[in-house]
Write a structure and sequence with these properties.
The structure holds 2 protein chains of 2 kinds. Chain A is of the alpha+beta class. Helices cover 39% and strands 17% of the residues of chain A. Chain A has 18 helices and 18 strands. Chain B is an all-alpha fold. In chain B, a hairpin with a 2-residue loop joins strand 1 and strand 2. Chain B has 16 helices and 4 strands. The chains are: A alpha+beta, B mainly alpha.
Chain lengths: 486, 456
């Protein structure tokens, strides 16, 4: 019997070995796959187990965390949600994250390895450092001015510091309160459905994600291209342009909104926003020259900008006939730009021709404020020669002082600007978009401190550059005033 | 040359009379102190990790556990001084760890606190342990009650049929707010019966019977008949009650004990074959079992159907989340498993929070307990004692394998309680009685035989 008892014992040992081997399979080999299974709630539970770090504007948090007592415990709160929604985006247990909430998610949720001096310790202890903060470049006063200016209208504002690329304001109107998307449950689902069904599209970040025909504001790009290419050497020389201007190779006549454009100089053409002159100059620069100039300003960026949220690609067609090129040179045809891109155009002029990479997150910090990473000034290259930039500054100042952009003038400051009215829709039937791009420097300051692009979608039906000046320029002025007084 | 060999082979001088095998009660006390200490520290750790405070009843818990361990130790010291010193400490440690895990799960299910009940049941278990060790002076007494045992065990198994099913199985009886699984006790009684019957009829079973072919001889029906009938009856009742785990356990127990008694491996093979056919039939035609088998073959099917993870998938997720080192006591999410987290799936919590390392340690503790049972079986001299020790050790081993294999996806899941670890009163009490019997058997095994010289 002894022998058989031994065999039974061996059999039990075999069972134990099988158990241990299978456990090793489940807990070591399959562990990662189980963790990655979308039905496994653990990652979500862990993610929301601690309060999320905050997004800061002017050093003060515009976000918060609330203990919901639910499985996914901490939910996001927003102070002044609609004002900062285009910056913060939302953070939702149900719908994920967007904008800075998404771009800096690792820091905010505490999973960024930079949050700990000893990442290995957290690896071993299975703990997690407290969520870090994202300090934005946005300035509350500038943001407020832009938001107040757009109140009741559809549109967007992007404001930059031209020298550094810091984004000072990013506003989209109408906006929404991202707080309604925090958490789980039917209320959140209903809010999401309602926001998506709203024809005004409140969740669309128009400053970064919507592209508009830039209209006459694009003439700044065309003028700079002409000066750099030597097509125009004297901005005050007459250009011998007929009014209306027959588009090359067609019988279509391109008109002007106002009068006095016949045979005008480029300076006058910018001042009064002459379509005819700028279209002709664009054709003279040629397709390759125009495409190259637009690219240098940031159009057609292959991978698109990241600020750190991705920005829609602004477009200037690379394959066009002469008449299409003429229309594109005045910001029509297929030319499309985000408000941020047009703010970069104004900033390039203000910054002596250099385009700085726009960025929204000044730095990320640990819970205690010590720095994790900082967003640095980066150059995107040179859009035009410094001499061209100086000449363009003069032209833009002239627009505000003597031309179509008088509504942007600020006493005691140098302001350069350009109006725009973009036709769109089938047969240009849509209400035109009113544009204004500008920059400003306080009297005595060495460099312009702010560049702005404003677009108002539902501008009153006054055609021509009047609407850019009427609807968009006052908003730009308020934004620039707020930036200069800071 | 032969003289030299003879000299070497000469046995060591016999120990002086009265000394016998070392008693090792001091070792037992030291190990017990360690087991109590680990459990109390685990209790404190769970409190600190989940609520940030030392749990309120910590002092009572520590005092209760120490008192229980001390009482059990005194009973062994007085009544079974030669008992194996590992058995009691392993039982105390496993029971203590079980209480820690249940207390930890109580934190996430505040509406359904069970640690208190489990503590009471454990106390009752220890009390019965003391009672068995104190009153049962010689295990051979049990041999006399073989037929009484089998009668009582069949009655116990049949009772739940008359009570409403709980979670699809007719294995509980509810009485005065307490729920109870009589089948748990039946397994000890059945082991006693098998051991007694096989010990009495061993020779007839091993040597008689008509030759079929080669070495295979038909077992004599007169001897095999009664035991086969009882075994079939018990398994039949269990299948009727849908207690698959216990029917699997009874089948395994019967085969192991029959093999130990007769050494007939051919019959075991035929038994296994028949069992496999039966299992296949049940697994195909019985919907309750069929779904268990489906779950085992594809634990994530419900996720693919969009119904969310089932219990087994959640259990696997929990084990996976534990990884090698575990999330730490109180830091896991095993409550996601749902209602059986404290009972059938308690190992998932251990796996998630203690990791592969902790779980392997727990399984090795069971392995050690079983090994010590077999060791007693080997050292015992009477066939009944050997068979009983083998049977009891096998019960523990099979239970651990069936439930641990089930929750980790090694075999289809059958509801059963992890000995000592899982929440469940009848299970804890029964396992304490098993350990008490093993203590008694090991004491007999290691006790020096009076008046008999060690060497022949």
């Amino acid at each position: 019997m002894i022998r058989y008892i031994r065999w039974c014992a061996y059999f039990c040992a075999l069972l134990l070995a099988a158990l241990l081997a299978n456990l090793a399979r489940v807990q070591v080999w399959e562990s990662a796959a189980y963790g990655a299974n979308p039905a496994n709630k653990r990652p979500a539970i862990e993610r929301y187990a601690e309060p999320r770090g905050d997004i800061l504007v002017d050093g003060r948090p515009v976000t918060g965390s609330r203990d919901s007592g639910q499985l996914l415990r901490y939910e996001r709160t927003y102070t002044n949600g609609p004002l900062y929604a285009p910056v913060t985006g939302f953070s939702s247990q149900t719908y994920g994250t967007s904008f800075v909430e998404r771009a800096e998610d690792q820091v905010l949720s505490g999973t960024d390895p930079g949050l700990s001096a000893f990442p290995l310790w957290y690896e071993l202890s299975r703990g997690r450092p407290a969520g870090g903060n994202a300090v934005t470049t946005v300035r509350a006063a500038v943001q407020q001015a832009a938001y107040a200016g757009l109140a009741g209208k559809r549109g967007a504002v992007a404001a930059l510091d031209p020298a550094t690329g810091k984004i000072l304001a990013l506003v989209s109107s109408p906006s929404y309160d991202p707080a309604v998307l925090s958490g789980t449950g039917t209320k959140v689902k209903d809010a999401w459905t309602a926001l998506n069904a709203d024809p005004a599209r409140p969740m669309l970040n128009r400053a970064l994600r919507e592209t508009y025909p830039p209209g006459s504001t694009f003439k700044i790009v065309t003028a700079a291209a002409a000066l750099d290419a030597g097509v125009v050497t004297d901005v005050d020389a007459p250009t011998r342009t007929p009014d209306p201007y027959p588009l090359p190779g067609t019988s279509t006549l391109l008109p002007n909104a106002g009068t006095g454009c016949e045979d005008a100089s480029m300076a006058e053409a910018v001042q009064w926003s002459c379509n005819t002159v700028m279209a002709k100059i664009g054709v003279q620069v040629g397709l390759r020259g125009m495409v190259e100039a637009a690219r240098r300003f940031g159009f057609n960026g292959g991978e698109g900008l990241r600020v750190p949220s991705w920005v829609s690609r602004s477009n200037f067609d690379t394959d066009m006939s002469q008449d299409q090129l003429a229309l594109s040179a005045i910001g029509q045809f297929n030319t499309k730009a985000t408000p941020l891109q047009m703010a970069m155009v104004a900033a390039a002029v203000a910054n002596g021709g250099e385009v700085t990479y726009p960025y929204l997150v000044e730095r990320t910090t640990q819970d205690d404020g010590s720095q994790v990473r900082r967003g640095d000034r980066r150059s995107l290259g040179r859009a035009m020669n410094p001499a061209t930039a100086l000449r363009m500054q003069e032209l833009m100042v002239n627009v505000v002082e003597n031309g179509t952009g008088r509504n942007a003038a600020i006493p005691g400051a140098v302001v350069g600007g350009k109006t725009g009215t973009a036709q769109h829709g089938v047969g240009n039937a849509g209400t035109p978009y009113a544009w204004f791009i500008s920059w400003a420097k306080a009297e005595g300051a060495p460099l312009p401190q702010v560049a702005v692009a404003v677009v108002v979608e539902d501008a009153s039906a006054h055609r021509g550059d009047i609407s850019g000046n009427g609807a968009a320029a006052p908003i730009a002025r308020a934004v620039m005033e707020a930036a200069l007084s800071g | 040359m032969s003289a030299l060999t003879a000299k070497v082979a000469e046995p060591a001088p016999p120990p002086p009379p009265g000394a016998g095998a070392p008693k090792r009660r001091g070792v037992e006390l030291t190990l017990l102190t360690g087991a109590v200490l680990i459990s109390v520290l685990g209790h404190l750790y769970v409190g600190l990790a989940t609520t940030g405070r030392i749990p309120g009843p910590a002092t009572r818990y520590a005092a209760g556990l120490s008192a229980a361990a001390l009482l059990a130790h005194l009973a062994v010291r007085i009544r079974a001084p030669y008992a194996d010193p590992l058995l009691l400490p392993i039982a105390v440690l496993l029971n203590g760890l079980g209480l820690v895990l249940i207390q930890r799960l109580d934190v996430t299910t505040p509406g359904h606190l069970t640690a208190g009940d489990q503590l009471l049941w454990s106390a009752l278990g220890v009390a019965l342990f003391v009672l068995v060790v104190a009153l049962l002076r010689d295990h051979r007494v049990l041999q006399r009650y073989a037929y009484l045992s089998v009668a009582v065990s069949l009655v116990l198994m049949l009772i739940p049929v008359f009570f409403p099913a709980v979670n699809g199985a007719h294995i509980w009886i509810r009485f005065a707010g307490l729920s109870f699984q009589p089948g748990e006790f039946a397994k000890i009684l059945l082991a006693v019966f098998f051991a007694a019957y096989l010990a009495a009829n061993r020779t007839a079973l091993a040597l008689t019977g008509r030759q079929l072919f080669w070495k295979l001889r038909l077992l004599p029906g007169r001897v095999l008949g009664p035991i086969l009938a009882i075994w079939l009856l018990s398994v039949g009742v269990l299948v009727l009650e849908r207690d698959l785990g216990t029917s699997l356990l009874f089948f395994g127990l019967f085969v192991i004990m029959l093999f130990t008694a007769t050494g007939r491996i051919g019959w075991i093979a035929i038994g296994l074959l028949l069992a496999a056919l039966g299992a296949y039939a049940v697994g195909t035609f019985e919907p309750h079992v069929h779904s268990r088998v489906d779950d085992w073959l594809n634990p994530f099917a419900s996720i693919e159907r969009g119904e969310g993870p089932g219990q087994l998938a959640q259990s696997l997720f929990a084990f996976g989340a534990g990884g090698l080192l575990g999330a730490g006591l109180g830091h896991g999410q095993s409550f996601l498993i749902g209602f059986a987290a404290k009972s059938d799936f308690i190992l998932a919590t251990a796996g998630e929070e203690l990791g592969l390392v902790g779980l392997a340690a727990i399984l090795l503790l069971y392995g050690l307990l079983v090994a010590r049972g077999f060791r007693a079986a080997l050292a015992l001299r009477d066939p009944f004692g050997r068979l009983l020790a083998t049977g009891l050790a096998s019960i523990v081993a099979l239970q651990v394998f069936v439930i641990a294999g089930g929750v980790t996806g090694l075999i289809p899941l059958t509801g059963m309680a992890m000995p000592f670890l899982a929440q469940g009163g009848s299970s804890v009490v029964t396992n304490w009685i098993i350990v008490a019997l093993l203590v008694r058997l090991s004491d007999s095994a290691r006790r020096p035989r009076p008046g008999k010289e060690p060497a022949e």
